[in-house]
């Protein structure tokens, strides 16, 4: 999947996915707390994600990732986890690794990520 919304909106999708996995039902206020953003900022992002078809809101104001939203959120989260783990394994401080992974996950191409992941997995099997 080669869609990019930009770092900010991708971070929102990732946060909604994480919250969904942690607490089940996600509302804008949960996202605001998780990301340490204001409610108006989250409302604006939710509006954009809904308009682009990545997010739906039900009558109880609960947020639900659409099929495309879920796929993109999972892609971003997979990259985040992968890069964090690799950086920590190389000796980077975990907090710094988290920050760096958050930057890398948004700029690397699908092709480069897949090749890097394959190379590391192949290298790990050879050990």
If strands are numbered along the chain, what order do they take across the biggest sheet? 1-3-2
Counted by DSSP, the helix tally is: 6
Average pLDDT over all residues? 93
The helical percent reads: over 70%
List the helices and strands in order: HEHHEEHHH
End-to-end Cα distance, whole Å, is 31 Å
Structural class: mainly alpha
Tell how many strands the DSSP assignment holds.
3
Strand content: 5-15%
Largest sheet: 3 strands, antiparallel
What does this structure look like?
- The protein has 127 residues and is mainly alpha-helical.
- Helices cover 72% and strands 7% of the residues.
- It contains 6 helices and 3 strands, in the order H-E-H-H-E-E-H-H-H.
- The chain has helices spanning 7-23, 28-35, 39-51, 67-89, 94-107, 110-126, and strands spanning 26-27, 55-57, 62-65.
- It has a 3-stranded antiparallel beta sheet.
- Helix 2 (28-35) packs across helix 3.
- The model has no long low-confidence stretch (mean pLDDT 93).
